[in-house]
Amino acid sequence: MFILYGIGALLLRLGMAIHAAGMVRSKNSSSILIRSLADICLTTLAFWALGGAILFSSGKILDPHLLFSLNSAFFLVCVTLVASGIVTGIASERSRFLPMCAVSVLLGALLVPIVARWQIGWLMRLGFIDAGRVSMIHLTGGLCGAVGAVMIGPRSGKYNRDGSSNGIPGHSVPLAAIGALLMFVGFIPTILGMAANGPMDLNPAGNVLLAAAAGGAASLLLCHWRYGKADVHLLIVGFLGALVAISAAPNTLNIWAVFIGAVAGLIAPLAALHIDLIWKIDDPTSGIAIHAVSAIWGIIAAGAFTAAPFAARMKQLGIQIMGLLAIAALSIILSGALFFLLKATLGLRAKEADEFDGLDLAEHDIGAYPDFQQTTIKSYHLREA
Amino acid sequence: MFILYGIGALLLRLGMAIHAAGMVRSKNSSSILIRSLADICLTTLAFWALGGAILFSSGKILDPHLLFSLNSAFFLVCVTLVASGIVTGIASERSRFLPMCAVSVLLGALLVPIVARWQIGWLMRLGFIDAGRVSMIHLTGGLCGAVGAVMIGPRSGKYNRDGSSNGIPGHSVPLAAIGALLMFVGFIPTILGMAANGPMDLNPAGNVLLAAAAGGAASLLLCHWRYGKADVHLLIVGFLGALVAISAAPNTLNIWAVFIGAVAGLIAPLAALHIDLIWKIDDPTSGIAIHAVSAIWGIIAAGAFTAAPFAARMKQLGIQIMGLLAIAALSIILSGALFFLLKATLGLRAKEADEFDGLDLAEHDIGAYPDFQQTTIKSYHLREA
Amino acid sequence: MFILYGIGALLLRLGMAIHAAGMVRSKNSSSILIRSLADICLTTLAFWALGGAILFSSGKILDPHLLFSLNSAFFLVCVTLVASGIVTGIASERSRFLPMCAVSVLLGALLVPIVARWQIGWLMRLGFIDAGRVSMIHLTGGLCGAVGAVMIGPRSGKYNRDGSSNGIPGHSVPLAAIGALLMFVGFIPTILGMAANGPMDLNPAGNVLLAAAAGGAASLLLCHWRYGKADVHLLIVGFLGALVAISAAPNTLNIWAVFIGAVAGLIAPLAALHIDLIWKIDDPTSGIAIHAVSAIWGIIAAGAFTAAPFAARMKQLGIQIMGLLAIAALSIILSGALFFLLKATLGLRAKEADEFDGLDLAEHDIGAYPDFQQTTIKSYHLREA
Q: Which residue of C lies nearest to B229 if distances are taken between CA atoms?
């Protein structure tokens, strides 16, 4: 079954690539997919070369038997690809290609394996609840992406001098929505695979579906209340945020799954707006809100709604927050160190002219849609004079 | 296994969304995907809140354990999403967003669960043959969509004063074809999951594949005979119609699967043309022909080709027709009542100006493809002066 | 499980269709998908009608029980669809529709079943190593496509009088990359299904993933070394080539999987360039390099790196080469005979005017993207005056 769960996680990864491709401008749409391909290759090799040794504490790097011995090792590589895919999306449209390859290596070789090891080590002994390993996949990837977004800076033209934010629409809403739906389909086996070591007497699949539905419905209501219309991107953020949040506790009872999902469906879109408008962190795919913020909510909710007396729940909540802080600190420190190093050496950011031309042309010498006329030759590139 | 079959049904649902997105004009292509997302959320919640209580006659609404207790409940929600997705496609390009949400609730809370309950109740006692539950998924969805299409009316510019019909091409044939192929892939596990309660000593997967192939080949011949060329949309209608038809009796012997599929591959495209040209019911995705018409043929064929003496087969045929009539009557009455109510209150139909601008802009304030030049600013919108 | 592996193979087939659709010009993008649909139908029927009789030596054609009796028969049809899909891609953009239907029939009825039968017959007795049946799927399809590409000739405008080659970019890089990623996802269950009869004590899934990663990374390095940039098409060729190569021996030890994959990631892109620039065989999807060349490398590597003393390995290598030659000869002779016959009767090649207009319009009377302005009315069609 781990093989099938792993294939489900690959479908989730493919959905992330499609979603990200739809969310960027057409001039960067090849670039984001080339990065997804490279990320899949490099993260896998890094996990095999070093990450596995850390996770299984085998002491051997480049272990010739690693992916042979355990079907679960295959599954773990597949979910690590999900974590690294988050960063690819968040850093799109203005980062350079090579430094992003180094980020894939960091996630596959160090960050995800260390957190995975903590989860079966001291966190498990403490009683940290995270059945779907959301802190290992989504929190690490989301925070690494957030650190990257801050260090790389926003896309040119994203923020005006008066502090206001310009929406930079992705080149294909259908592609983004199809990617989000495929992520939804892939999420279910991924979460099941992760929760397979926990108590499986109950049915996580139904719960995940219900939480996603509640999240989508909540963000639909939020949109109608605030804007009087269903906004496709906020709807997607709420829908996917609910899937991330329920990952932390897919075995909770239905009625709580509805609640956890619905709250995630409110928190994630509001966080996406807040990150963009107030914190001015530029995140083309809203990956920080979908993955990091919803993961934090999910971990907290998993502790707060555990079936126990009040005092025990408060204690559990403390454990959850401690675990969150430890994992967040590790993610931010490792990512920050790497991005700092990369910025000082290779340089993180594409030249402004390259950003203007689009990374497809500048870095890969290709146009994504040669047969179609585009609204301006180089797609729009905003800049205040 | 029900989890995997359910994931297969979600792939089928995703294929339907992609197919529908390709079949509408670019100005409505975000709209149809937002509706698919909302439909998935609302149908799931409605099934959980009320539909499950009807289906399992548990007497509890908002049952906190419903999706926990049974893996098959997860699968049933997934196939209910397929039923409601049919209506989303048929009613696209001119219906309003909110009333369509109510339709999702109707299907998830009442129509599909009632038919599902009939199928394990009085229809089963009568000996109604429908191994793949085609009457529960495709007949209900297809007829609900047909009622909707009649009540909403055709898209502006679809029919001329002299009664002739204009073809309104979808904005992306590749997207439509890719969606149809993904539906094909998802159909196999869906049918297997449905038939899993029936006799599984034989191999429905091979049968389904063969019927689809026969259906596609038959509609290919039909196209070449009538038009001298392979028409992609009629080919898709025949191919998918055969998959629907064989759902009713996936356990029939190969040679009959070929026959049932091939006939469906003729009936479905001819029905699609008839519905458009003679009945003047506007159905952008040909969902009525694919789902409702092929389901009727499948149910009848399942009775007619059952392995029994002639008299028993005639009796079986009577049972099949009686079941069909009962389910069709329920679908039409419930859908008709809802659409009537919605028309009298919210209004079913988008304003003509909104239809002209496209629902993406009018209802969701977004353009699907901002980087591409379109053939006219608002895509073509036909109207006789 | 064979059902699930078969569904995985169908996802691989769908990925091939999406990849090919992205690699052709927009004026041929409907055509390629119609052909994929027709190919799926006709290959399935041909396998059922005749191929199964050959493979299982049942002596009955049109066997009414064939796809009933064995789940593995369903799986075998699905992988046969992969073989025939290779030819569809290679022959795109300039071949006529009807002759290509005959090619689907050849592959489904004769070529793949005969090789499959050899593999469980005299090749197995000889000790031919090909756990993932790469010679049955990829070598047959790739060589049949190569014969077709030679007999049909290059697309107009592909080669100049001075012998230089024009790049004819596909209409959608994102579609091509998404298709390639879906192929990757589908490859894993396909290979697992194929290898399921061999020793399964080890974990082929992890191996396949690792080989693909090594192949992608190797072609990334190759691109950077030769061109100073990551070329998306060469990267895809290397990535998919590694998946094909590892199919021959998915049960080899990890460390060899990395080596086999990495070498395939070098050989396949170089072969693609060589076939285009030196041999001047026009292959829009690089299917010959991805499938045929990588299959040859995979079969040879499977023999060369078998765990045995040097003399035994040399003997094994001889057996591998003999098997390769036999299968290649059969593929080339059968395909050559059919293409020769088709050329003499129906004609293989579309009229130049039809090629200029695009096969969508010429053969199927449809435009793939009616809502979008294209860079020239008929997309670019190169021709030296």
A: C364
